[in-house]
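HOLO CASE FILE
Compound: iron/sulfur cluster
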Amino acid sequence: MSEVPTDAGQPYEYRRVPLVEPDWTRLPGWRDVTAAQWESAQWQRVNCVKNVRQLRAVLGDLVDDRFYADLETDQQNLATMSMLVPPQMLNTMVPHGAPEGQTYTDAFYADPVRRYMIPVASDRLADWPSHPHATRDSLHEHDMWVAEGLTHRYPTKVLAELLSTCPQYCGHCTRMDLVGNSTPAVSKLKLELKPVDRYDAHIAYLKAHPGVRDVVVSGGDVANVPWKQLEAYLMRLLEIETIRDVRLATKALMGLPQHWLQPDVVEGVERVARTARRRGVNLAIHTHVNHANSLTPIVAKAARTMLEVGVRDVRNQGVLMRGVNAQTHDLLDLCFALQGEAGILPYYFYMCDMIPHAEHWRVSVAHAQRLQHDIMGYLPGYATPRIVCDVPFVGKRWVHMVTEYDRENGISYWTKNYRTSIEAEESDALTKRYAYYDPIDTLPESGRRWWRKQAEEQNA
Ligand code: SF4
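Model generated. Tokens follow.
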């Protein structure tokens, strides 16, 4: 909802908030963990929480059995991503204990980072847990592969998925089709080529297509590519004269900042950044932070270290989600923490994509438009993020670019100005309208009735 004040004063009051590393020894399983262990990337990886038993070993009796049962139900029936939560991220949930008057379990249920990293069955919507138009590969990235893991969707840029794993798995992952381990609800697509052959195929395609100038090097998360392999791939990219932008996608800059602070990684990034600068290529890191609580001093240190060794920019691409950050105050708190405390540019917020079992996270286009309106004017213009809808077969559109919008049934229509790699022969690709759908539970009763009728007719 728009947060228009009913009385005098500004809708949002900025106050500088210093970053704080929550004390991990408050959690029963980490009472004896030292600062040296905490700062070790290896300790963080080994101690990631991968299942209910391991979560219980960390949180113990702080959280009631009902939560663990709720999580088990979700894991067995609904989760599209397997569990993988680095200690760094778990430590930012209920960071300073339960507020007065609330049990720890209730605070844990309500926690914004928990809501997307450790989803439970009771979070999901009972009616319409998935939109009827939800699909596994909702952005059709796999359909647009021009080599294994290389998606050519926009004319001048490609997405290079080097691998299909991350140091952390987010419940809402848009690449749930490919990324992570299979879950009881979703068996994942597998990359088949050996990494070395996959990378050769990417480089060959880029050399053969000089119209592509921008490569988003992603996955998964590049923090899971052994550094030597990643450096070799990046150096090969930088040798291609036509490549002018290289962006490294890593949520681990926030989820496992210890990785990016390892001396061999820092030295390697410095070598790559120096080469990029000499060749006039813009090298940037794109990370993925969804809530201000995730920004701690060690995250800021990792981001600033990357800037110090010559990365031109560290930018944030968050995902807009109900219960996590889809309110004006939460977004502005996050953006001020990114921009003012961590040296990370608030760049985009994506609307959560139409994947299965994600309706409880998604917001309507109208809600996203209101948020965009309400965050304007507070941050420096260049650091005011754009809220974008990634429309299937179209790509990112600013939320106010909608061409037509049926609010009653929650269907918005969008146009585009380029062909994706699978539309070379489609004569109407640039004139037709492409649909995007609001979550049904946010519609007026007449709209919800319309969708029920559609479903009944389809099942008849
Ligand atoms: S880090 Fe990115 S790719 Fe990995 S699970 Fe999260 S959203 Fe998906």
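CASE NOTES: The first strand starts at residue 145 and ends at 147. The chain is about 35% helix and 15% strand.
CLOSED: yes
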